[in-house]
Amino acid sequence: MTELTAPPSMRFVAQSGRTVPLHLVTADGLAAWTEMQPRRMRAWLEATGFAARVGTVALVPDPDGGLAAAAVGLGSDIDRQRTRFNLGGARARLPAATFHLEHALPQAALDEELLGWLLAGYRFDRFRRPDARPLADLIAPDGVDVARLEAIAAGEALTRDLINTPASHMGPEELEGAVVGLANRFGAAVSVIYGDDLLYHNFPLVHAVGRASDRSPRLVDMRWGKAGPLLTLVGKGVCFDTGGLNLKPGASMGLMKKDMGGAATVIGLAHMIMAQGWPVRLRVIIPAVENSVSGNAMRPGDILLSRKGLSIEINNTDAEGRLVLADALALADEEPPDLMVCMATLTGAARVAVGPDIAPFFTRDRALSDALMKAGDAVRDPVWPLPLHSGYETNIQPAIADLDNAPAGGMAGAITAALFLHRFVENTPRFVHFDIYGHQPSAAPARPKGGVGQAARALFDALPAALAL
């Protein structure tokens, strides 16, 4: 079972013994800051050419050769618009000392840098010898909401761990185990429907996608909280996607352990919410399957019936994520929540549209859309709305069924997928669907290459006002 507590490297430390001042210096504030430092430190900074460029580190020795102080450059205003978590990016270049911050940052910028420090402590060492190099520690400054930042970091660590774990160790059973572990920690209730029982309980699409694997498909349903608005999170849990009979090429299959990134992200977000004790009724629904190839796999051209009763023509077995989500969303919509969030690594079209960094979303709630955009900017978790263009509705309506799971033509693929999902949410006015990537293609400050959470921090910031908490 995946560890639900962030490692010590992703937490702040308490005051104990001597600490080293760590200065955060912007390029535009460098001259004034330098003038305020002792003469010896000014001379050292001038000799070493410290210019506060983004991510640069200056280590200032004391007369005995120890460390008297350190400085991290945050760059110019333009640099800070283009980069995130610069303190976190510098953490690995600091010696293994305990630091306290010296800064003149506004609260939002400080929170970003402190979260970056925590996220830079993430390591995925499950299948290799752990990195023995100790990291620098930090005492949180006064006035900082330490519990909130550590809850966010722990939720993000959980999401990353789940995505990074290969499918050989993260199938439907193990994904269920992560939800059960979360429920046990926070006193939530979990129900699970397995295998052929999915047909008996009317989850035919979850069953159809997962039946070709010898790892039993399942529908995981977790509930937490006794009072408050109902918040339902639905996450795509395709633990590995071969493409089915429409087999993916090998190059496209290599990253498919991350195809449960939607489930991993809602699990991480649920961790944040429960750790902070929000006054909500939280529901998490995850259809957990493996899309495999065998004699009983669903076929191109098949017609499948959904939980909602809509028939679906299967024109590509590699468009399976929207199928399992359709049954899960229909279930969620039967008990309409105050707000429903769907997270899925759903389409390559979304990546073509906005690249790997931005999480596009779809909603008909303009106020919610504006709140998410504002929150994403505030916490440096970029999101962007894409249109639910009604003119494309005919694209998802084939000749012989109610819906087409893979419209021909190849255009507007993220939009048609979102329109498909919206057909299964009729009773819940406040619904948002995120089409995320869930993967950091190259290392960046506080974000190593590999699994990464997207939009969870923006949601965590926006949801309290959206739910009037």
Automatic annotation (TrEMBL):
Question: Where would I find the Cytosol aminopeptidase domain in this sequence?
Answer: 316-323
**Which residue ranges traverse the bilayer?**
none
Query: Entry's InterPro entries?
Result: Leucine_aapep/pepB, Macro_dom-like, Peptidase_M17_C, Peptidase_M17_N_1
Q: Which Gene3D superfamilies does the record associate with it? A: Leucine Aminopeptidase, subunit E, domain 1, Zn peptidases
Mitochondrion is among the record's keywords: no
**Which UniProt keywords are present, listed alphabetically?**
Aminopeptidase, Hydrolase, Manganese, Protease
Question: Which residues are in coiled coils?
Answer: none
Q: Which CDD domains match?
A: Peptidase_M17
Q: One MF term from GO for this chain?
A: aminopeptidase activity
What does the similarity note say? Belongs to the peptidase M17 family.
According to UniProt, the name of this protein is: Leucyl aminopeptidase family protein
Q: Which species does the entry assign this protein to?
A: Roseinatronobacter alkalisoli
